[in-house]
Design goal:
Layout: E1 12-20, H1 27-35, E2 42-43, E3 56-57, H2 71-74, H3 79-95, E4 107-112, H4 118-129, H5 146-155, E5 161-164, H6 170-183, E6 189-196, H7 200-208, E7 232-240, H8 241-246, E8 253-262, H9 275-288, E9 297-299, H10 306-320, E10 328-330, H11 333-336, H12 343-357, E11 359-360, E12 383-384, E13 389-396, E14 400-407
């Protein structure tokens, strides 16, 4: 028998956050953009979108990789890798970790997978088609694990490493896995979250599904027409609470639990009653040892697609019953778009910052209530509120559902 099974679960806290998104190049710009209701969904110039139904998305603007990497490394790094490493650098600096003194064999890295280096692969294919001789190094980022590998390599982390692929819940699932690594003493610190960059294939795919809004997405609004695609990197530093307290670390929030459940219904559509999502939320609350009435805030998946918003609303009502109408619910996708493989990571970062700062980000672009979506979606304006318990939902294609529970850290 593994003796670790008999050990009590270790508590896990968030001690560092790094973010690069359409709202800014760091965590503070991201947070200020959220609470000020700033929309990062603008015209895309990363690639040609002239022939698509929509021309907008939450693109990271003004990012110059040469400010962060030398040219030798840039030849092998995709945009996804670049922003992922930059966010990891910020998160580690934010955590105050002294890596010269750290036991790097006890530091793990686990990220959610997205399109990864597809933009680089598309460049390779385009140059090949045009009769040029593309650099073979453009194919290196094709594997979805490469960003995880680059972060481990840059800092010399020798602990457990993994990359989770569960569609748009990938980085939420990776955070749950990272939490378990620490709870079961497989690591002392885990770098987790996700990074994902937009590419032509993804953009074309969602356009062909007619799942995108030609303007800006409007989660839970009656007149919503679909999602807006985005790109981002969000890295969280999870740490054993005793290790964090010993070094006097700043603690944003405590990771309380997580849950996973599957719809087993359809490759793109959610199960209409929200049953899979409801079971996921209930599993997460059970893992955290909490009741539905303990929850103050829900960071919703909130894609602004017609069926998803209704299914998520039904799931919340199933779990919380009448109390659902007393909970603040918001979707930050209205400001940063749907960041796919990084969505759960950036929404987890927002949830931790909500708890830490006592301010709930709004759901912007909201004007017309939908009778099928009748909860408190914090429309258009941020709200000051003492949030003790919050959950973050990620409800992905294929019915891959993950919910994370966080709580306020009390010394």
């Amino acid at each position: 028998m593994n003796p670790r099974i008999l050990e009590p679960l270790r508590k896990v806290v968030i001690t560092g956050i790094g973010v690069i998104s359409a709202l800014g190049s760091n965590k503070d710009e991201f947070w200020n953009g959220l609470i000020n209701g700033r929309c990062g969904i603008t015209e895309i110039d990363l690639f040609d979108v002239a022939n698509y139904r929509t021309r907008t998305g939450a693109q990271i603007k003004g990012f110059n990789p040469e400010e962060h990497f030398d040219k030798k490394h840039l030849k092998r790094m995709s945009r996804c890798d670049q922003i992922g490493v930059v966010a990891a650098r910020e998160a580690i600096a934010d955590s105050g970790l002294d890596l010269d003194k750290a036991d790097k064999k006890r530091i793990g890295v686990v990220l959610g997978a997205g399109a990864g280096g597809m933009l680089s692969v598309e460049k390779y294919r385009k140059e090949l088609y045009e009769g040029k001789r593309p650099q073979p190094s453009l194919l290196i980022p094709y594997s979805t694990s490469v960003t995880t590998d680059y972060i481990a390599l840059e800092f010399g982390f020798n602990g457990p490493r993994g990359t989770i692929a569960t569609a748009c819940s990938s980085s939420s699932t990776s955070i749950g896995y990272a939490m378990d690594m620490i709870r079961h003493n497989e690591a002392e610190i885990v770098i987790t979250g996700g990074s994902d960059a937009m590419c032509t294939l993804t953009y074309a795919g969602f356009n062909s599904l007619r799942a995108v809004d030609p303007d800006r997405c409007r989660p839970f609004d009656k007149n919503r027409k679909g999602l807006s695609l985005g790109e981002a990197a969000a890295i969280l530093i999870l740490e054993d609470i005793n290790h964090a307290k010993k070094r006097g670390a700043k603690i944003y929030a405590e990771m309380a639990g997580y849950g996973i459940a599957c719809d087993a219904h359809h490759m793109t559509a959610p199960e209409s009653t929200g049953d899979g999502a409801a079971r996921t939320i209930m599993s997460a609350l059970s893992d955290a040892g909490m009741s539905p009435s303990d929850v103050d805030y829900i960071n919703a998946h909130g894609t602004a697609t017609y069926h998803n918003d209704i299914a998520e609303t039904k799931a919340i009502k199933t779990v919380f019953e009448e109390y659902a109408y007393k909970i603040s619910v918001s979707s930050i996708k209205s400001m940063i778009g749907h960041c796919l493989g990084a969505a759960g990571g950036i929404e987890a970062a927002a949830t931790a910052l909500t708890i830490y700062n006592g301010i709930i980000p709004p759901t912007i672009n909201y004007s017309t209530p939908d009778p099928n979506c009748d909860l408190d979606y914090v429309p258009n304006t941020a709200r000051k509120k003492n949030v003790n318990i919050a959950i973050s939902n990620s409800l992905a294609f294929g019915g891959n559902n993950t919910t994370i529970v966080m709580k306020r850290y009390i010394k």
